[in-house]
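Lab notebook, page 48
Experiment: co-folding of the full assembly
Goal: obtain a model of how the components sit together before planning crosslinking
Operator: M.T.
Materials (sequences as entered):
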Amino acid sequence: MSEKQTFSGNRGLQLEEPLIFEIGSYQNCGVDLDEVPDVASRLGDCAAAGDVDLPGLSEPEAMRHFVRLSQKNHAIDAGLYPLGSCTMKHNPRLNEKMARLPGFSDIHPLQPQATVQGALELMDDLAHWLKTLTGLPAVALSPKAGAHGELCGMMAIRAAIEAKGELATRNRVLVPESAHGTNPATAALLGFKVDGIPANAEGRVDLAAFKEKLGDDVAAIMLTNPNTCGLFERDIIEIADALHDVGGYFYCDGANFNAIVGRVRPGDLGVDAMHINLHKTFSTPHGGGGPGSGPTVLSDRLAAFAPLPFVVSGDDGFSLVETMVDARLGADENPFGRMVAFHGQMGMYVRALSYMMSHGADGLRQVAEDAVLNANYILASLRDVMTAPFDNGPKAPCMHEALFDDSFLKDTGLDTLDFAKAMIDEGYHPMTMYFPLVVHGAMLIEPTETESKASLDLFIATMRDLVKGAKEGDMARFKNAPELAPRRRLDETQAARNPILRWQEREPEAQAAE
Amino acid sequence: MRYLPLTDTDRQTMLGQIGVGSVDDLFVDVPASAQREGTVDLPRHLGEMQVERQLSAMAAKNMTASSVPFFCGAGAYKHHVPATVDHIIQRSEFLTSYTPYQPEITQGTLQYLFEFQTQVSELTGMPVANASMYDGSTATAEAVLMAHRVTRKSRAVLSARLHPHYTAVVENLSEMGGFAVAQNPVGDASQVSEAEDLLALMDDDTSCVVIQNPDFFGNVSDFSALAAAVQEKGCLLIAVVPEIVSLGLLKRPGDMGADIVTGEGQSIGNGLNFGGPYVGLFAAKQKHIRQMPGRLCGETVDADGQRGFVLTLSTREQHIRRDKATSNICTNSGLCSLAFTAHMTLLGGKGLRHLAQLNHAHAVQLSQSLSAIEGVELLTPAFFNEFSLRVPKSAASVVEALAEKGVLGGVPVSRLSPEAGLEDVLVVAATEANTQEDIAAYAAALKEVLA
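Observation: model returned without errors.
Model output:
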């Protein structure tokens, strides 16, 4: 490979960019502000002595800084982003435009409700779509992300158990080993005991083992469906029935709802609560780690416990139930409390509704079908060279994601990480690695419905070539990878051992030595 | 459908290669009773123009903050966000990227998170800050749980002057997690010093005292003495900053002795958005970093020795630690923290101070104009950009009457705390976005409403 050195450290269009604190100036400001009227200060004893010690940049410098940083990122707009379980699908720009309509973006959460009827109508519409698509009677819109929605669902379950006077005895939550880490973390946060259930040889919940775990102390199961192995839990209705028979509640992790949206309603599967990641199924942008939004649908058994706030409609239009005092005016309402200030992620509600309206009932069904088709196409095209642990040919399809393990790398001296890093040099973001935990060296590939066949074919050809290279012993292609990315492998051990979590001014001699 | 690239020919070819006859064969694992033949009962797909028309009609029913004299605050503030900020956060590479789990190809996100952490750390006067929480309220609830972990105690004492929604969120998470909360009862809105009450509420199980500055009623004060007294008892002082622009003029919570600082970062870079998405700020002392919730970005080097950034200390987090994690948080407010960092970078310390001065000056002017009206009493002796007024009738009815006159005049306390007995108290905010004409229009409208 050409290792041409440059004077600037830049490599063609790939530009090195220092931190703001190394290029900014304490005199500089990229915002022109009005002159301050002359008034007597009312800050009392709390006035600071001097300026905040942060440099500024003029507008052109700031633009350049952030644009240069942006060019060091992979993004769905630039290429396939096959992170399993994360659903990196196209983010329509219409949704961005709609969320920026001043009527949605420039309104205050606490201005009089008569002045925000359109916003409340939008929330009500979104709720209607979510309830209809899931076949469940209620939805709590306010959770801020998937894990927060999980918390909402489990809080509703806890409240229902408490209302029955069973809180002291019903305290065990069953969580399959293949679950997202947020599931056990959420259950533990609420004081539940987490009890693992094993997977069977097919990669699904072991029904016999599950039934053995049932008892009067079971509060809930937290089951992802389709599960994190990319498989539909075939016995799901039997699981739900058995659980309900012992008085437990069915929490479904809805992270993979995109595989079945418009085709299967979780309400028909016996689900009591399920969060919906608007940033997965309904395409609101992931934004480098949020903001997300995690509305949580609830069954009849849990609907009354939905948290504050919620929208109700009456003769005078829409109104928000925001406090326990408001809620007590409603007959059947017994909210478990409040999870966030204000009303949740309005900006995400607008984007998600815009996405749903664009697709309609017909388009959403097509979304699920194409997502599943694309994943099965990848599975079918790679199963002869990679190893898919739960694969059983065309009669046993996967859902929206295809799971491989690292058996095919046996005797190559390479592992999943090496394989993933070599994908980076080929221009791909790696798939989800080492998750789910139930298979060794997991590689979970989720293409989503927004990839074309041509895009999949190139990806498949690239993966096949990488496998060939691995099996032929081309170690350098993997062990040194990535070589063409903005950075090579980063030393995560050093980062954790000696945490540097903010910029500090270095001693002048240290700078000189660099 | 414009978002779906597969053609029918593609679909047929692919099904053939998979070895099945139809797409239904891919859904064979769905139980028969849950299989649906047709589509669900919702409208069919729409073109871009129709979606835009319908949603615009909904949006048009709302009274926007920029279209009227606007003075609402109470935890969400109307500030001007430079056009550059919105452009930056709409860059594809930021907008459509995932959490930076592959650091070699996400240095853009990681570097701005490191810059964000540095800015939050510097603003709050705390040694470390994380890469954001959902919002100020959830950040505060998580801070309380962290204080329990650090001190191995299980009870929190809350100021009466904490935002009522924040109080509700702390109470909910605490109660559900099996922890106790004691709140100092809200007395008169003008009674600002409650240090004695808070200290008296502490007991042997207490891990922390939570205060807010500026508080819900707008008052600002130096809490150094309270912090010292709380720490004397082996407890942590959690300081909540609901309006981050205030730190352009106020003493930093870290300098006043806070152990954990949480805040709402919406005011810098982020619009009102009817309450979300916002960006929760979370800062703490170095010695407590392993008990912090949320993502942390750290500096390191790559295989060539070049500086780079990674997510670090992830053994605290749910994807590694599962039921032993410090929090269940995963997705946070990445793009909102980018908006914060971009706006903060444009401002710099100098610009932030100027911005804060404008806010304060407008609030002082507004307080003078409004409290000059007969029957209106200013309840807040020291404030930044927000203060409380006692009005001679129900504050909720005053706000509604003002809205009918085209003035959004603030937030009645009764909307958030109907049981506080403060029906006549109104919380009013002014920012750089208010003009002298706005202030005059508000005073004139309030005079009419109260006449």
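Interpretation: The two ends of chain B are 59 Å apart (CA to CA).
Next step: discuss with group before ordering constructs.
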